Amino acid sequence: MTMTSTWAKAPNYASSPALVEAVRAQTVVDHHTYLEQGLQEVECRACGTCVLVRKNSVRHTSIQWQANPTEACPEFAGAGGRTGSMQTCPRLISSIDHAVMEGIVEIRDATE
Hints:
Layout: H1 17-35, E1 40-43, E2 50-57, E3 61-65, H2 69-72, H3 74-77, H4 90-101, E4 107-109
Parallel strand pairs: 2-4
Antiparallel strand pairs: 1-2, 2-3
């Protein structure tokens, strides 16, 4: 029995410079949309660590750390470098929730 792979390499648009430029331009737009747009500073009310936050919905929160969490956050530092099982600091999440309740951080899609 012969198995056929369904994996395919990403397309190479080298023969179409216009398409290469269009993909590059869309990548720049996506980078801005997903990594920069709508981020708001939130400071942890427990330790003062400042992160950038975007609430895409009630359930989805994007957090960008401005420094290494194991150096900036006592909760991560206390994990002794074993942060793989920690998604984020519960005190920081509480601070983000508070910022949402105070209207400092807006939920982009509050219908969810």
